[in-house]
Structures are given as structure tokens and as C-alpha cells.
Amino acid sequence: GVVTVPVTTWPLMWSGISRDLANADRFDLTAAQASSLAYVQFAATRDTSNDLRLDWKTAARNTKPVFTNFADSQREQVESQFTADWVGGTFAGRAAVTWVADPLDGKQLRYDGSYMAGVIGNWAISAGAIDRWWGPGWQQSTILSTNARPVPGISIQRNYSDAFKTPWLSWIGPWQLVSFMGEMENAQTIEKPLLWGLRITFKPLRSLEIGLSRTAQWGGKGRPKDFGTFVDLLEGKDNSGTDGIDADNEPGNQLAGFDWRFSFANDFGFYGQLTGEDEAGMAPS
Fold it and tell me: Which of the two ends of the chain, N or C, has the fewest CB atoms closer than 10 A to its terminal CB?
């Protein structure tokens, strides 16, 4: 109950979380909760200081992992990573270099996790290859997780998740929005398609967080990728046989869905996620 901002979209913004930590009433916490609060406060101080942070880690397993989960993002059997992080008042950045043994894609040297970011008003704009996890599940996400390597691109995200001031929208409570556009390496027979994503989360109740997500592959070599094509994609006009769409001008391939997490007694949570393919009747099919 200490953290009031939406937390089911990763990466998280430290700004709102740090403010919640500073406003925490320690006298209302159990010993275990106070210990958790102290740990998160330590992480916030460490990750948001102006110091340059250097880190090196190596991981090895007897078999290559099939899936990742939220706490374990190791993708290869053997990998070693060096990172250098810096977070300032307005800008932040990370340089990450990873060496992996016997990779499936043949690329032993990777720069996954590297990014540059800056804050303009209440928006954080970033460019880089950033891992994303969309959804409340700890083991998997049905739309975007760390199973696949991150897609290099640009993104925009709210810095603080403050609620709307107007009575018309204030009922949705604290809310977060993130959107990105990146270029993939390959997708089946399409070379270098674009990947677009949008996620909105909000907390109409202190104990309830709701998320709406949408992703789309579009463009790529030999495929239409002008602004009109993207508008058709946004409007859901991307199914062959409707709205004059055929195999030659089909805008893209989409996923969309929603998720929720309801917490009670500060000790338990009930969550779920549903994701559909493409579109039928203005909703995921």
C-alpha cells in the first residue's frame, strides 16, 4: 500500500516511486514491510544518484533456458555483461556490452540494455535497446516480455503518473503511458520490419491496476510504411478482404489485450492477462 503509482509496466520510472517512498508512514508498517521499504529505498538511492555506476556479471547454466521470467532475464547458456550507468536530474544513460557463447543468432557481442534518455516536462524520451515487460505476471507476459532480445528504437513515457485534475478523468487515478517504435532484425519472411507498441495503465482504486496493451509489426523491406499505412494500422484496417486491404497493402500484424491486478490485505494479489490476435469488430479476436 506504500507505492501508489502503476507498477505493471517495466521499466519503471523512479520518480513517482521515490515520492511514494518519501511519503510512507513507517509507523503503520509491520517489521517485514518496513524491511521491504528499506530495501526499495536503498535501491532508489543507488540507482538515482549522480555517480557513475559500473557493474559486471557472468552467468552460466548447464542448459540453455527456454523461457525467462521477471526476475531472471538470462537468455543464453553462458553470458557475461559489463554495464556503466549514470542518472542525472534531466538525463540518464547506460552503456551495456554482453558476450554470449554459442548464440542462436550467431552474434556473440551484443549491446542490449544500452540507452540514452532525457526528460521534457513530464515526459521521458529515450533511444536504445531496452528490455520491456508488460503485464502483472511474474512468470510470463502474453504480449511483451524479456524472452526475446530488446528491439532497438525510440520511446516516450510519462515521468510522474499523476492523476488528471479534471473531474471527467480524475476517477481513473494515477496513470502511466508508454509508446515505442523500433526496428526488428527479421520476422519470418519480412526483412527488418518495424515494431510499434502502446501501453496505458491506471489505478481507479488503490488496490486495482488495469492495463491496456497493443503491439504491431508493420513495414519492412518491400512493404508499405508511409504515414497513411500507419493510420490504417491504428484504425484496425489491416485484415485482408476488408476496407480494400489485400496481401500487397496489408498494413501489419497486431496483438492487443488487457490485464489487471487486484491486491487485498496487502499480502495477496489476484491478476490475469488476456491478449488477442489482430482485430474483429473493433476488438482483439
Answer: C
* DSSP label at residue 231: H
50-58 LR contacts (CB < 8 Å, sep 24+): 50/86, 50/87, 50/88, 51/86, 52/84, 52/85, 52/86, 53/83, 53/84, 53/85, 53/86, 54/82, 54/83, 54/84, 55/82, 55/83, 55/84, 55/85, 56/80, 56/81, 56/82, 56/83, 57/81
Q: Is the dihedral of CA 44, 16, 87, 214 positive or negative?
A: positive
CA distance 89 to 182: 26
Q: Are 196 and 218 in contact (CB under 8 A)?
A: yes
Q: How far apart are CA 149 and CA 182, in angstroms?
A: 12
Q: Which residue has the cell 526528460?
A: 119
Closest CA to 39 of 21, 20, 25: 21
- Could you report the per-residue pLDDT of 129-167, keeping only the tens digit for each? 999 999 999 889 999 998 888 999 999 999 999 999 998
Q: Look up residue 81 and give its three cell numbers.
A: 555483461
What does the pLDDT look like over 224-245, one tens digit per residue? 788 888 888 887 777 666 667 7
Q: How far apart are CA 281 and CA 269, in angstroms?
A: 32
Residue type, 187: A
Determine the distance from the C-alpha atom of residue 23 to the mean position of all C-alpha atoms in its chain, rounded to a whole number: 26
Residue with grid cell 515505442, as numbered in its chain? 180
Residue in this structure with the C-alpha cell 557472468, named with its chain if needed: 58
Examine the pLDDT at 215 and tell me if it is beyond 90.
yes
C-alpha cell belonging to residue 222: 518491400
